Amino acid sequence: MLDLSHARDRMVDIHVSRRGIHDRNILEAMRQVPREVFVAPGYEEFPYEDGPLPIAEGQTISQPYIVAFMIEMAELGAGDQVLEVGTGSGYAAAVMSRIVERVYTIERHAGLAETARQRFEELGYDNIEVRTGDGTKGWPDAAPFDAIVVAAGGPGAPLALQEQLDVGGRLVIPVGDEPHDQRLLKVTRTGAATYSEEDFGGVRFVPLIGEQGWPENGSRSKIRGASHDRS
Ligand code: SAM
């Protein structure tokens, strides 16, 4: 395989580090994970540009900066158990797996989940579990999680995900009334039934489709998940 480590270092320096992400573990993980393995055929020339790229099923692999930003918001630590909703290409799960103890990642499209699983196996990343399903319901048998990162935008923060956070756990999720006009929220579980919320600004993600997300048919009736006490 072509050695693209120089292009990768450049991407991390220019698009991630210089834009304000200074966590050494994130930068090191992004220098390690070969992003070119995660892009669709035909896009191998572009893995180190700072933009989202198309993958199968009309979905996208998120831009490197936003992957780094969400991981920084989630404050990942070495011993953490992390849930990702929206495996997509598998790139973000791969990066997180270089930082934490175990990553559980759910994707609603079986084909994407299977391709990601094969990529993890080929790379020898054996601390990632992949499941096909509706991630808005979380992964109850692996809960509680230290962090949950949702890579698609929903109408609210799903209750199931909030409840699967450990106390002190962080949920990072794009939320908005329009599927492509969202705010990036961090919901922290501060106690058994208490949560705090911070807003990290506007973002654009593909819609989170599921029981506690948007309906599949495109109708945008509101299904509000978040109803816990907030400070
Ligand atoms: N993290 C991915 C990566 O690094 O390539 C990018 C994810 S892409 C922006 C969002 C993904 O969320 C899509 O693959 C989409 O199919 C998936 N998705 C949307 N709703 C979902 C749900 N309820 N459960 C699981 N996956 C979902």
UniProtKB/TrEMBL annotation:
It comes from the Bacteria. Catalyzes the methyl esterification of L-isoaspartyl residues in peptides and proteins that result from spontaneous decomposition of normal L-aspartyl and L-asparaginyl residues. It plays a role in the repair and/or degradation of damaged proteins. InterPro entries: PCMT, SAM-dependent_MTases_sf. It catalyses: [protein]-L-isoaspartate + S-adenosyl-L-methionine = [protein]-L-isoaspartate alpha-methyl ester + S-adenosyl-L-homocysteine. Its EC number is 2.1.1.77. Belongs to the methyltransferase superfamily. L-isoaspartyl/D-aspartyl protein methyltransferase family. It is an enzyme of class 2 (transferase). Pfam families: PCMT. The active site is at S62. It is found in: Cytoplasm. GO terms for molecular function: protein-L-isoaspartate (D-aspartate) O-methyltransferase activity. GO terms for biological process: methylation; protein repair. It comes from Mesorhizobium tianshanense. PANTHER family: PROTEIN-L-ISOASPARTATE O-METHYLTRANSFERASE, PROTEIN-L-ISOASPARTATE(D-ASPARTATE) O-METHYLTRANSFERASE. Its main location: cytoplasm. This is Protein-L-isoaspartate O-methyltransferase. Keywords: Cytoplasm, Methyltransferase, S-adenosyl-L-methionine, Transferase. The keyword Cytoplasm applies. One of its GO terms (cellular component) is cytoplasm.
